[in-house]
Amino acid sequence: MSEHATDAHPVLGLIRFDANGLVPAIAQQHDTGEVLMMAWMNRESIAETLATGRVCYYSRSRGGLWRKGETSGQAQHLRDLRVDCDGDTLLLLVHQDGAACHTGRRNCFYRAARDGAVMEIAEPLVSPEALYGPGHTHG
Amino acid sequence: MSEHATDAHPVLGLIRFDANGLVPAIAQQHDTGEVLMMAWMNRESIAETLATGRVCYYSRSRGGLWRKGETSGQAQHLRDLRVDCDGDTLLLLVHQDGAACHTGRRNCFYRAARDGAVMEIAEPLVSPEALYGPGHTHG
Description:
Oligomer: homodimer
Helix content of chain A: 10-25%
Largest interface: A-B, 38 and 38 residues
Structural class of chain A: mainly beta
């Protein structure tokens, strides 16, 4: 899709992409409020997400579109897409299938700074090997 | 504080700062789960936040520490600081005094992409002028 396509969603015009054409996107489970993860999106991944209702990010490490769950099966289903006051952050309200985190945890924020130490506050729901096989990567 | 100070919190060693020495931080109201805003932190602002319990960001536009609420009175009180699996995003569980957003809204994510349009889904709690005076900026 051309960025000048006449059918582009008007929300795209509010977003201030960074020098790499990316914007950070927070994924939140829509009903419980759990913050699941943060990843990056580009114009194409946002347009695809709005068109399909399945969340698609941009993987900086792989340099391409990252359809969340395409490898792991742990997809995110979009319920609402919001943009912040400055247009430089997105909030995605989603339904997360299974585990959002590549470690197999429900969310990525399982390490907390408490009492001068770092504590792990969540256990994996599923092993990374079960999600990705040996030598797993994000997906 | 020197970044090599022996009393540095061990969570600092888990964080992968970007090329500018910054990391994105999501602020979430600790009890309701409302995602309030996203801003940036550097090592010094994280250390200060952990030491004082008052959230301090790094303002990219002003190029310095931004003690949330120092101008507006709308401070954030830290309840928990979490780091994600990759060490490149923080989640701050906070208690937010009043409005997190410089527009006077409770949170910054008040514009939603719905039905092919952009809808404003929240009203200001307070006017920006009441927070900052005429010619308001973030604070």
